[in-house]
Design a protein that fits this description.
Keywords: Signal. The chain is of the alpha+beta class.
């Protein structure tokens, strides 16, 4: 490979500003004994445990497998020699204590000896330079779990003079992710977004050893279309050559915005989702918080994590909520594989329920499955499979979602035999639960009563019925499509006029959210079985629905701990933007998107699974809530149509998405406030665009020309809109 050499002697001795100093015996690590619920550490097939510690309340535990690890990023505060130590219990001699660069390339390491009680392992006199960004890193053993506690990285008492001549930090203004700096091989790699002009990248940070100079400087514009060789020269004129390589990432969705918090959060979410992809790996199955090392290992199917990060599984409820975000993040093969796997697990012996939790190899996860009579199941998930599969078809146009035999049988059985088999306590056409989660719960709310019917169940059944009708129409089975559309309309009428009414003389009272076995009908706040009703659009728009949305907001307050009814688990709040965006209550929806990002680095309510941000639903749904929520994109890939509606708030002046795939199309959409939308169709097929603007606007401006608009009611809100064609590889602008 051709190397471009920059050898001019431009002095650029960049120093770190005076700051913290590492004194002897000062531990520069954060939370060295895994207290505070394990914050400060990153875990891969690892977690904290509150037993058998060396000191304090918690220890780190690495599950069986040399590829599993715990790590912490540290920036060296002062040049000197450092000692890295920790206390370990290890079943064999194959576990490792190491320091790595930010991309896990090992720079210094040693093996951990087998022991049945805590023994101290020490890497002494590691020469480190001020400003180096490294990881303290422990890997596991193939023979069993490894415990680690009482970690220390302290400046040692070795006083021998140190001399460095190296690149300490490097970045460009255009790059994404961290830079890989390998001081052993003198090799640097960084990534830039797809489509970046590699011939003109601007150096953003360039930090080298004190007294050294180099051939480049911060602010220089460099051609990185080929690897570039950089000379670093010390005060003795000794030269070291470093190779710096720019790597163009694969094409993916990119969001930019006037609101940097939104833009940065979306970028974080896109990168985080990739961490959860398990496709093609070979690793543990049936791992959970009680069985830390699982029950052996297996080859993984195309899949991604959906559920607690200390369980090797994808859960139906989580998967269904993550599927749209996953599609936007480029995980179409994983989505279809997971839908198909769940469909095949829906059997007659299980009364057409599918499984709740599935290992990454496609087998039942045993924490939630004993046998076909005793396994976790919840009514809303059954129906969400139909609704969310239809959403995948809308995004992709992939006919397998409406033609695959396993999927089609699953949808049909859910809406026929499944309902019939679970509607015998109060026969009314609504699928019922029979108790707790192992008997079959009527609701997603696992922290309350055991009703036989619930608002999230009936709301999900309504959307599934609509989706099944739409699927039939897409299959050109028009008579059946009409029949099922009428069933959906009747179900909505029954809900609003009968099922949800406590007292006919009080028509504006809260909707009933659960029905108990003795017939008692409650309309209190039931978390999921409350907010799912307006979210699934089974509630009729109007004053009653508006009051109910206020009721939900009041019970949620400002999040965890702010009201007696506010959920304690962060993932519950990921549904709330989807509850408010459809009613154009944008500030309320955006409030919860921000809340989720503001708390992503805090411990999860179940800290053994990591931080809030380590719960997969957080990142996946932030993606979908940005694209489908804030940007109001409603795809129809099969018919080459798309609808858009800006839901931006006052603190988001503009928001743009690029490289958004929708079937055969690649879209670029920008909203400027609530007044202007610009859509580019980057494909070889024409596209029909229905551009919505909330409010009554008799005309809309299309490419500078006033066009008479149409109006309609959308969830009780008036929308003015126009439908315009966009030719292949063309852009159109519409404003009010």
């Amino acid at each position: 490979m051709k190397l471009k050499v920059l050898a001019s002697a431009i002095t650029c001795s960049l120093m770190l500003s005076a700051g913290a100093h590492a004194q002897k015996n000062d531990n520069i690590l954060t939370n060295p004994s895994f207290e505070n619920k394990g914050l400060g550490w990153s875990y891969w097939f690892s977690n904290i445990k509150n037993d058998f510690t060396h000191e304090g309340e918690y220890r780190g535990r690495i599950a069986q497998g040399k590829n599993h690890h715990i790590s912490q990023i540290v920036t060296i505060p002062e040049t000197g020699y450092y000692d890295l130590s920790a206390y370990f219990i290890s079943p064999s001699n194959d576990a490792t204590l190491a320091m790595t660069n930010l991309t896990d390339q090992i720079l210094v390491s040693d093996k951990i000896k087998q022991s049945t009680k805590y023994q101290r392992k020490n890497l002494k006199h590691i020469p480190l330079e001020k400003g180096e960004q490294l990881k303290v890193w422990f890997s596991g053993s193939n023979q069993g779990g490894v415990s680690v506690d009482s970690v220390a990285l302290i400046k040692s008492n070795k006083s021998k003079p140190l001399h460095f001549n190296q690149i300490i930090q490097f970045s460009t203004q255009e790059q994404v992710d961290v830079t890989s700096v390998n001081k052993i091989s003198r090799d640097i790699k960084f990534q830039v977004p797809f489509g970046t002009d590699l011939t003109s990248l601007t150096i953003g940070k360039f930090l080298i050893s004190e007294g050294s100079y180099s051939s480049i400087n911060t602010g220089d514009v460099i051609d990185f279309s080929q690897p570039v060789q950089i000379a670093v020269i010390d005060d003795n004129n000794k030269e070291q050559l470093w190779t710096i390589t720019a790597i163009e990432k694969e094409k993916q969705v990119v969001v930019t915005s006037s609101n940097t918090k939104l833009q940065d959060s979306f970028e974080w979410a896109m990168e985080k989702t990739q961490r959860f992809v398990m496709t093609g790996q070979h690793d543990l199955v049936n791992r959970d918080e009680y069985n830390n090392d699982g029950d052996g290992s297996a080859d993984y199917i195309p899949s991604y994590w959906a559920g607690y990060f200390d369980r090797t599984a994808f859960y139906s409820r989580d998967f269904l909520h993550q599927a749209s975000g996953a599609k936007i993040a480029g995980l179409e093969p994983e989505n279809f594989s997971m839908f198909k796997t769940f469909a095949k697990h829906s059997t007659e012996s299980r009364k057409w329920y599918t499984l709740w939790a599935i290992n990454f190899d496609g087998t039942p996860h045993t924490i939630d499955y004993d046998d076909d009579n005793w396994f976790v199941r919840e009514v809303p998930a059954q129906f969400e499979f139909v609704e969310k599969a239809w959403k995948q078809y809308q995004w992709t146009g992939d006919k397998r979602y409406i033609e695959d035999d396993d999927l089609w049988q699953f949808y049909t059985k859910v809406l026929t035999d499944y309902i019939e088999l679970h509607d015998d306590q109060d026969p009314n056409g609504i699928a019922e639960g029979y108790g707790g989660i192992f008997e079959g719960s009527a609701t997603y709310n696992e922290r309350g009563e055991f009703p036989i019917e619930a608002g999230d169940g009936i709301g999900s059944q309504y959307q599934a019925t609509l989706a099944y009708s739409a699927m039939l129409e897409a299959r050109e089975e028009y008579n059946d499509a009409t029949l099922w559309r009428e069933k959906a309309q009747e179900l909505k009428r029954y809900f609003n006029e009968d099922w949800s009414v406590v007292d006919p003389n009080k028509p504006l009272e809260n909707y009933v959210n659960i029905v108990q076995k003795d017939g008692l009908r409650l309309n209190d706040f039931g978390k999921e079985n409350s907010w799912f009703m307006p979210m699934k659009l089974i509630t009729e728009p109007g004053e009653r629905n508006n009051r109910y949305l206020d009721f939900i907001a009041n019970n949620l307050g400002d999040g965890i701990g702010s009201t007696p009814e506010a959920p304690n688990n962060i993932e519950a709040y990921t549904y709330i933007p989807e509850t408010y965006f459809p009613y154009n209550r944008n500030a309320e929806a955006w409030k919860w998107m921000q809340y989720i990002m503001d708390t992503k680095d805090e411990p999860h309510e179940r800290p053994t699974q990591g931080t809030n941000g380590d719960y997969p639903e957080i990142s996946f749904t932030f993606i979908s809530n940005t694209i489908e929520g804030l940007m109001g994109i409603k795809p129809n890939a099969a018919e080459h149509r798309v609808s858009t509606a800006s839901h931006l708030t006052n603190d988001i002046e503009w928001l743009s998405v690029d490289q958004l795939p929708m079937g055969e199309h690649e879209l670029t959409l920008r909203h400027d406030g609530l007044t202007k939308s610009t859509l580019t169709n980057r494909s070889e097929h024409a596209l029909e665009w229905e551009a919505w603007f909330y409010g009554d606007y008799p005309t809309l401006i299309v490419d500078g020309q006033a066009i008479r608009s149409q109006t309609k009611q959308v969830n009780g809100q008036q929308v003015s809109y126009v439908i315009v064609p966009i030719a292949k590889n063309s852009t159109r602008v519409i404003e009010r």
